Amino acid sequence: MKRMRLKIFMITAFAGLVTLSGCKKFLEEKSQSDVIPKTAIDYRELLMGSGYMDNSEPMGFVYFLDDDVDLFWEYANGEATVIGTNPAIQYFPLFTWQPRLADRNGLGDLIAEDPGSTAYFRYYKWIMGCNAVLENIDQSIGSQQEKDRVKAEALAVRALYYFRLVNLYGEPYTQNPQALSIPLKLNSGIVAGSMPQATVAEVYNRVVADLKEASRLMDALPIVRKDYHINQPAIHILLSRVYLYMEKWDESRAEADKVFEQGGQIANLTGYTTTWLNYNNPEVEWLFGGNTQPNQTTYVPSIPFRATFDPKDVRINVGIQVQDRSLTPLVSKLPIGLDLAQTLRTPEALLNRAEANVKLNNPGPALKDLNDLRRNRIIGYTDVNITDKDQLLQAIREERRKEFCFEGFRWFDLRRYGMPEITHRYQNALGESIQEFKLAAKDPMYTLPFPNSLLIRNPELKQNASGTMPERVGH
Predict the structure, then answer these.
(1) Where does the record place the SusD-like N-terminal domain (predicted)?
(2) CA-CA distance, 285 to 408, in Å (whole number)?
């Protein structure tokens, strides 16, 4: 029994993720309870507590990186409300893609001195929780169906974390699949020494393998919705996304089809007046994680992006609301407080399928999917007929941008689109010139630098080129 307890709760990070004192603290926290997992239900609860994301989001910082966000430029009573303020300065390194963005904020504060504060560490901590469950679930007490559901959930959730990590710290799959990315840790045991990095392709292959096995185990079981556990349609949405990033169009389309075969639906949301990132929305298959937007009033939806919405598109009214007094355009689609704020929902399957169909030279079904989604988002919408394939692809990608804005999609999508040039404007203080900062096409910063605290603790981690660039200067 003692050995069993150690095996379950020694979910320790490999060297390079935590120090020994960090491991000790983790073990002490986990050993407070005398409850030892025995049944499949116990392991499902352990997975929910140690493997599933809580109501935080480690990679919320990507909000500042893409082309949907801008510094607040509106004026109230003749005065700029945020230019030169601490919040504006704090996120300057992220907003202007500085090589120090992983280590210091614009105020000069160390932000990743403790590796436990990094997105890298936090995702791996949840991965370790998944690994512990996967190692022990087969020996638990319970029916095979109960064990299969727990195993499938652990595999799928772990796959999501690795997908995010490889898209933060590895090059885009279609650009350089053999580039080094992140370590693959597939068990909960202690590793003596540091761990080497796997290639981008190796991580993607593991993600696909985990999701395929998760769907094999779960598809034979009854579909359960709205219980905060990942379910069958959500797994197929995620697998469709991964295949899309790999440009495996047939596979992406096939996985998207399965979502609708399993009861996924596109709902008419033109009557919604509040956030639809919750289980009140029939499109939501899985609700999880925390807010993807760290700053509400300083870095706001950009004017060019807001201009792309049809005035009768409910997503602009529900998702981005301009405050009367300050004229500040705020992101209002995201829940506030401690509510869970992220979803896997059926519109992604529809748009994944539409994009794949264009690439497979099937523009008819792609156009139908595009019109179907718009009809359920834009009041009084009239179907369009787009005959040019390039224009249709662009329209589908713009629809994806609107549907999932500020949910952590855009930065990853820009990477897979070929890493285009984008710019941000920044002003240090009122009266000073406005500077333009450029992220060049295929810029190394599209692959983020590792925090130095991680490099110190894991000597086998090789810093990405973005971490050795000179300071980026505005013009």
Answers:
(1) 114-244
(2) 17
The amino acid present at 402, given as its one-letter code, is: K
Q: What's the 3-state SS for the chain?
A: CHHHHHHHHCCCCCECCECHHHHHHHHHHHCCCCCCCCEHHHHHHHHHHHCCCCCCCCCHHHHHCCCCEEECCCEECCEECCCCCHHHHHCHHHHCCCCCCCCECCCCCECCCCHHHCHHHHHHHHHHHHHHHHHHHHHCECCHHHHHHHHHHHHHHHHHHHHHHHHHHCCCCCCCCCCECCCCCCCCCCCCCECCCCEHHHHHHHHHHHHHHHHHHHHCCCCCCCCCCCCHHHHHHHHHHHHHHCCCHHHHHHHHHHHHHCCCCCCCCCCCCCCCCCCCCCCEEEEECCCCCCCCCCEEECHHHHCCCCCCEHHHHHHEEECCCCCCEEECCCCCCCCCCEEEEHHHHHHHHHHHHHHCCCHHHHHHHHHHHHHCCECCCCCCCCCCHHHHHHHHHHHHHHHCCCCCCHHHHHHHCCCCCEEEEECCCCCCCCEEEEECCCCHHHCCCCCHHHHHHCCCCCCCHHHHCCCCCCC
Nearest alpha carbon to residue 344 among 119, 122, 163: 163
Per-residue pLDDT tens digits for 39-65: 999 999 999 999 999 999 999 999 999
Residue 21 pLDDT exceeds 50: no
Q: What's the pLDDT score for residue 328?
A: 75
pLDDT, tens only, 313-366: 999 988 888 765 566 788 888 887 789 999 999 999 999 999 999 999 999 999
pLDDT for 27: 29
